[in-house]
């Protein structure tokens, strides 16, 4: 073998040989970490996993013989050991030379057992990566030191972050091919930091490695004395485990199965998703809300004094209350929410694209309900992170949607508790799993409010005012002049005897939308609320003027769709970024450039210019007065 | 933006061990099946993995007995010691035991000496399909693990079979979080592998820790063997056809995997206790399946067999 191998060091051979009982005792107390490796096609992912298996003695002699044989026939390492062949499982893939599905690998050290989800690097398999990431405590994102941060690196990082993995290792691989250069390493780390910040990744740990040569995998590299951090394996042995983190959360257990072997026993079997439970604890069954106390925690090995997140147990109650599969047992004074409408992130996993309005089966916790999905509020371009308007989601697409279920379900936001916030959608005809979803929050309209029919309708309101209701929607960059123009327009309309109301972005954020920030989700919600308020005002027959940046096409379209045809007048206040930045009326651009303001439209958050605005006013060519004149003309003309 | 500290604080004492986590996962999987299936069955092959799976089933439904039968798709060529444990284990668990023999294989007298790979195809592959159809089982638990060989590493925990029991590796359902999609069309069935994430070492450690009874063949003892094609084959009964001049030798051997006795290679060993077996396993350098003749054809053989319906 020509491979540069170091002695496999994970299993303490001496202890095994000399005192197997001591060894077994030690290994009974190992913990388990699940992680995912992601990287582009040639980042050396399979080689790295092969290396971990090899160094941990998970490769046996006969496998090694078969590996040596295969390396000669189909290997890519010029006859040398091709570790990638160890992990590329299915026959078809081996011939193609690429991994195409999720595969799980296992290895162990003295401290931990590891389960590695090996997922493919190429574009069309977002589905597989999301699947692998859903059960991972940690992600290893591989970068080829020669290539640096690629589009695929960004996509994988975005997905890892969306799936809520808090432990990220940036393994900068193939350091041997860049002369183990510290300069190159830090250059890549700098580039990645910038991107990580953009997607809201809280932290990551960069490690320079060579999977092929074994540098900083198990032992510290002799070639990179400049690197003070841990080896990859050293870190994997220390990193925190998600189950352990969930123990600090209030108690949650979705009921899987009711155990009734005879009339005297009625137990509720389930996997504890979060928290701790003890006999005597006050609990609540959701969605019914009925309360009782835990009588006992029953297991085959005897009743327990306490059970924690990550255990499968059976609970009995003090009182006979209704409880069945699908219900969630929660800590009585810290219940989770119950709702029937949500905003969620969806990852579409089927060849057949999403059909808004079609009923799907939604499986969350241990229950299945019927659910419909709205048109996406936006689709995320996972390469550029841009929000795109979209009518549907195709295979491997990710987007934000509203979901409504046919009955209220207990849930938690995914980022707080993946166990009650992650769901799958199933096609009712084919039974295929078509999407994975993550709940962001419940929509407030979720409280089963029914529409109240009224006798004095919107037309009646408007005709009394002798006008046609409308929403004049000013959109454009901050500092483009939206508020100024809208203000002049309102004065002119008022002078003409029109009943108007001006909704200004800043003003609304002082009251109605005080709870919202400037993340994309909040921006979407901000516009949704303004859209709903505008609609109520048009019901009252008013001409509503709004001045909001409203950067995303999809939200503006959402408001347009709330209104009757012709009522929505989109006015694009077209001002180039340089001009707006030069004006900088509120000093915001200066702050944004200095990094004091995050998610600022035009700087680090996109602005999607209208494609089919009713009216465009260019504020470089026109004065505010002239622009307002143009808008008033349009309104008067269209309201005739 | 900060980079992570190199070391994390001490793990809390409440952190579950790897075996506790694996156990909880397997129990969760079994309960999902029982809550969703119409007519589940647990395939029981009497090996150590089956023993482990049966033990987990007892835990999952305690204090009720596991609410499904055990089924052994038999070839009539297993070791005698296996039949003995099989009947007792089912009785101890309070479960019904179904033993299926492919009537066609019985009639034709299919055996490992005359029929080569047809022996496995007919008794096991065809036999399993027949039995599942005969009893109308819609979900069958199997004890396969992902670390056994490469094509298994990509198989799902809930693995779907078409109405004619075929596996389509290109069209598997994604498994996210703990959400298993158990819906199927009429005629389709699911093979469920609750031990998917266990390794051979995990299984041994668990058997040791929980004191699970396994077939004594796993422990070394002097046994009559002959050497064929590099495998040590035990002469377990008088159906064994000795070649001209072949005389069984008494050797201290044990088995790392159990199947039809004329097809299962023994290893020479002195390991008489579970810790000694584990010790030997850790120090040894040949993988588990090498003792099985079925795998030797080609690396892709298992994948092909599985597509055709072999478990």
Structure description:
The complex is a heterodimer of chains A (640) and B (311). Chain A has 20 helices and 27 strands. Chain A has four domains: 13-240, P-loop containing nucleotide triphosphate hydrolases (Rossmann fold, 3-Layer(aba) Sandwich); 245-331, Beta Barrel (Elongation Factor Tu (Ef-tu), domain 3); 337-446, Translation factors (Elongation Factor Tu (Ef-tu), domain 3), CATH 2.40.30.10; 458-638, Rossmann fold (3-Layer(aba) Sandwich). In chain A, strand 4 (138-144), helix 8 (151-162) and strand 5 form a beta-alpha-beta unit. Chain A starts with 12 loop residues before the first helix and ends with a helix. In chain A, helix 16 packs parallel to helix 17. Chain A is globular and about 100 Å long. A six-stranded mixed sheet of chain A has the order 2-3-1-4-5-6, sandwiched between helices. A six-stranded antiparallel beta barrel of chain A has the order 7-8-13-11-10-14. Mean pLDDT of chain A is 85; it is low at 1-11, 89-94 and 446-451. Chain A is of the alpha/beta class and 640 residues long. Chain B is α/β, with parallel strands linked by helices. Chain B folds into two domains: 18-202 and 302-308, HUPs (Rossmann fold, 3-Layer(aba) Sandwich); 214-296, no CATH class. Helix content of chain B is 32%, strand content 15%. Chain B contains eight helices and eleven strands. In chain B, helix 3 (80-93) links the parallel strand 3 and strand 4 (97-100). The N and C termini of chain B lie far apart (50 Å). Chains A and B meet through helix 1, helix 2, helix 4, helix 6 and strand 2 of A and strand 1, helix 1, helix 2, helix 6 and helix 7 of B. Chain A: GTP binds at residues 39-46, 118-122, 173-176. Chain A: Sulfate-activating enzymes, NodP and NodQ, may be physically associated. Chain A: InterPro entries: APS, APS_kinase_dom, CysN_GTP-bd, CysN_II, CysN_NoDQ_III, EFTu-like_2, G_TR_CS, GTP-eEF1A_C.
């Amino acid at each position: 073998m020509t491979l540069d191998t170091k002695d496999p060091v994970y299993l303490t051979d001496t202890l095994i040989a000399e005192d197997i009982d001591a060894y077994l005792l030690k290994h009974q107390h190992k913990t388990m970490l699940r992680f995912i490796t992601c990287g582009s096609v040639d980042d050396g992912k399979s080689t790295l996993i092969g290396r971990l298996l090899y160094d941990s003695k998970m490769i046996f002699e006969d496998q090694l013989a078969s590996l040596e044989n295969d390396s000669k026939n189909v290997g890519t390492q010029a006859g040398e050991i091709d570790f990638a062949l160890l992990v590329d499982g299915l026959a078809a893939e081996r011939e193609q030379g690429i991994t195409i599905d999720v595969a799980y690998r296992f290895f162990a050290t003295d401290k931990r057992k590891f389960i590695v989800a090996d997922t493919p690097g190429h574009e069309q398999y977002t589905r597989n990566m999301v699947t692998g990431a859903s059960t991972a405590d940690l992600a290893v994102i591989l970068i080829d030191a020669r290539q640096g941060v690629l589009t695929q690196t960004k996509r994988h990082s975005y997905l890892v972050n969306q799936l809520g993995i808090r432990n990220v290792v940036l393994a900068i691989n193939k350091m041997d091919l860049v002369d183990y250069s510290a300069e190159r390493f830090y250059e890549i780390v700098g580039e990645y930091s910038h991107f990580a910040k953009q997607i809201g990744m809280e932290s990551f740990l960069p490690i320079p490695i060579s999977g092929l040569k074994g540098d900083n995998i198990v032992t510290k590299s002799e070639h990179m004395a400049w690197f003070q951090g841990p080896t990859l394996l050293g870190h994997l042995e220390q990193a925190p485990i998600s189950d352990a983190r969930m123990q600090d959360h209030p108690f949650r257990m979705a009921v899987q199965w009711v155990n009734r072997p005879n009339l005297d026993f009625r137990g509720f079997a389930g996997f504890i998703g979060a928290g701790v439970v003890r006999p005597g604890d006050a609990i609540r069954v959701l969605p019914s809300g009925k309360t009782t106390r835990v009588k006992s925690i029953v297991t085959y090995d005897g009743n327990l004094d306490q059970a924690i997140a990550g255990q499968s147990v059976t609970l009995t109650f003090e009182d006979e209350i209704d409880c069945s599969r699908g219900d969630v047992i929660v800590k009585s004074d810290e219940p989770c929410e119950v709702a029937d409408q949500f905003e969620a992130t969806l990852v579409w996993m089927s060849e057949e694209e999403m059909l808004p309005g079609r009923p799907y089966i939604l499986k969350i916790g241990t229950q299945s309900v019927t659910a419909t999905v709205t048109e996406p509020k936006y689709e995320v371009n996972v390469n550029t992170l841009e929000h795109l308007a979209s009518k549907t989601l195709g295979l491997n697409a990710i987007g934000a949607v509203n979901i409504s279920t046919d009955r209220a379900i207990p849930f938690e936001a995914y980022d707080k508790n993946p166990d009650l916030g992650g769901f799958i959608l199933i096609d009712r005809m084919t039974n295929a799993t078509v999407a994975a979803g993550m709940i962001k929050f419940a929509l407030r309209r979720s409280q089963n409010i029914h529409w109240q029919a009224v006798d004095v309708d919107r037309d009646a309101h408007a005709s009394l005012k002798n006008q046609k209701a409308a929403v004049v929607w000013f959109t454009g960059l901050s500092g483009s002049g939206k508020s100024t123009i809208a203000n002049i327009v309102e004065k002119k309309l008022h002078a003409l005897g029109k009943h108007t109301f001006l909704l200004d972005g800043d003003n609304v954020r002082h009251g109605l939308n005080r709870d919202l920030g400037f993340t994309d989700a909040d921006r979407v919600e901000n516009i949704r609320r303004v859209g709903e308020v505008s609609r109520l005002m048009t019901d009252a027959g008013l001409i509503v003027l709004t001045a909001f940046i409203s950067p995303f096409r999809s939200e503006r379209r959402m408001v347009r769709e709330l209104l009757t045809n012709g009522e929505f007048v989109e006015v694009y206040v077209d001002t180039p970024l340089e001009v707006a930045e030069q004006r900088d009326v509120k000093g915001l651009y200066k702050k944004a450039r200095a990094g004091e303001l995050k998610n600022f439209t035009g700087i680090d958050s996109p602005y999607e210019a209208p494609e089919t605005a009713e009216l465009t006013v260019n504020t470089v060519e026109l004065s505010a007065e002239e622009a307002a004149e143009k808008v008033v003309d349009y309104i008067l003309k269209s309201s005739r | 933006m900060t980079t992570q500290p190199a070391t994390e604080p001490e793990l809390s004492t409440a952190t579950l061990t790897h075996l506790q986590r694996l156990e909880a996962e397997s129990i969760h999987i079994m309960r999902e099946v029982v809550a969703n299936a119409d007519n589940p069955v647990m395939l029981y092959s009497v090996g150590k993995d089956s023993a482990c799976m049966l033990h987990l089933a007892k835990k999952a439904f305690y204090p009720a007995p596991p609410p499904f039968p055990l089924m052994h798709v038999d070839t009539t060529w297993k070791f005698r010691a296996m039949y003995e444990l099989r009947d007792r284990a089912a009785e101890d668990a309070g479960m019904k035991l179904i033993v299926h023999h492919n009537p066609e294989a019985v009639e034709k007298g299919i055996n490992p000496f005359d029929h080569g790979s047809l022996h496995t195809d007919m008794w096991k592959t065809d036999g399993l399909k027949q039995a599942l159809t005969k009893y109308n089982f819609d979900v069958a638990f199997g004890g396969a693990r992902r670390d056994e060989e490469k094509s298994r590493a990509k198989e799902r925990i809930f693995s779907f079979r078409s109405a004619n029991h075929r596996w389509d590796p290109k069209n598997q359902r994604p498994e996210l979080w703990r959400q298993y999609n158990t819906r199927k069309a009429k005629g389709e069935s699911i093979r469920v592998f609750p031990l998917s994430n266990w390794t051979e070492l995990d299984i041994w450690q668990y058997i040791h820790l929980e004191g699970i009874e396994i077939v004594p063949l796993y422990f070394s003892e002097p046994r009559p063997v002959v050497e064929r094609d590099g495998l040590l084959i035990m002469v377990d009964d008088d159906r064994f056809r000795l070649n001209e001049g072949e005389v069984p030798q008494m050797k201290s051997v044990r088995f790392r995997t159990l199947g039809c006795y004329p097809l299962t290679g023994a290893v020479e060993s002195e390991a008489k206790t579970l810790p000694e077996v584990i010790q030997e396993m850790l120090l040894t350098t040949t993988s588990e399946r090498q003792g099985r003749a079925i795998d030797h054809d080609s690396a892709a053989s298992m994948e092909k067999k599985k597509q055709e319906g072999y478990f």
